[in-house]
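As a warm-up, study this chain.
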Amino acid sequence: MKAATHLNFINGGWVKSESGETFENRNPADTGDLIARFQSSEKRDVEKAVEAAVDAQEGWKDTPAPQRGKILNDTAKLLEERKEELTKTLTREEGKTFSEAGGEVQRAIDIFYYYAAKARDLGGKVKSPSAKRKSMYTMSEPVGVVGIITPWNYPIAIPAWKIAPALATGNTIVFKPATLAPSVSRKLVECLDEAGLPDGVINYVTGPGKVVGQAITEHEDIDAVSFTGSLKVGKKVYQQCSKKGKRVQTEMGGKNPCIVMPSADVDKAAEIVSNGAFGVTGQACTATSRAIVHEDIHDEFVKSIRKKAEDIEIGPGLDDPDMGPKVSEEELKNTLDYIEIGRKEAKLETGGERLNDGKFSNGYYIEPTVFSGVKPGATIAQEEIFGPVVAVIKVNDFQDALNVCNDVDYGLSASIVTEKLTEAHRFVKEAEAGVVKVNEKTTGLELHVPFGGLKNSSSETWREQGDAALDFYTISRTVYMNY
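Now compare it with the structure written out below.
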């Protein structure tokens, strides 16, 4: 079957880009599988999208919040009806296993249901005045036109947790998905349109970040930008937006640790680390990248994590193995380059090879990889790899573990496996991370609580998800009324 050529969505219609050029979207499990072609847009396409969003903003802002919520609720129903189709699409374009993709699609569904309900509670707060015959209260209003730039590794969940609260609070949107995974987010936009979202409220523009993304961050009529992606690009986005006086949130990388203390069940701890390190092929900003293990159980832990890595079934995501391919040749090469560095810095316990025979011959497959004997300052212990690679670091005591935990430039997610209450409480208080977990993997987030990092993991301006997302997309006004 001939691959379709998909269009941008601007002002309620599907339209070609100004350039007339397209790029290909291929299956990382089988590069011979061409999924579709998408518009390689230009600055003028973004300008048209912003014009549409500006024109639609006042009408959407004035739409009663419960009515906005109903559209989000109807969107969630449509996503639910198309869940299997969306799951297959996500698996095919990003490489996740079918089970992992299904979980992500369900998260997007849940997010839309959540913010549909939250829309009814939007408003302000009544405060007690300091005099008689006076009232005081606050009002929340949308920021205006929002630019949303999302990554390829969670191509429907991350757009959902940005788009849903932005729409619930009355903002209009110019949305740029990642070029490596634009298919499933296009179907999200289809569902929003079918649910009755007015023309111009959401506009979907595909193309390279250096063109489309930059045009969004620099446009005078974009009031706020929400970005998730790499540290390098995120810093540039933050600088561009700050220079223009825009509200901005950036969520970037991580070098996430899991501390394992002697009181832990070693096999259970290895399972926690394995799930966090090798799930979604390690392609998560919250993936477990460092296992910081007490010397008393270090050797036993290494033996257990090595076995768990070797037992992982690898294959095409649609076959629903334990682990699928990397998303692209570039991402695969990046991980292999770090593994070569690791071979010089530490001991390779298992993995480290590209798989390219038989069913792996046309895909970007790599073995789950474990290094031991890693020094805290080693490259593979400091830099984000974004692949199924875990560095095991031996420490002497809890304080040593905590020092190693915090001695990186990132601070997104961190966990500890321990049965000692003192260690758990000290870790929660002293770990330098935006998300801290006890006896859990570093990956996995609840949708109704804030999410964000510290240090180079985030701009540390605004959090995502839960009520925190509503704060980012609204401006508060205070009313004093004498009567």
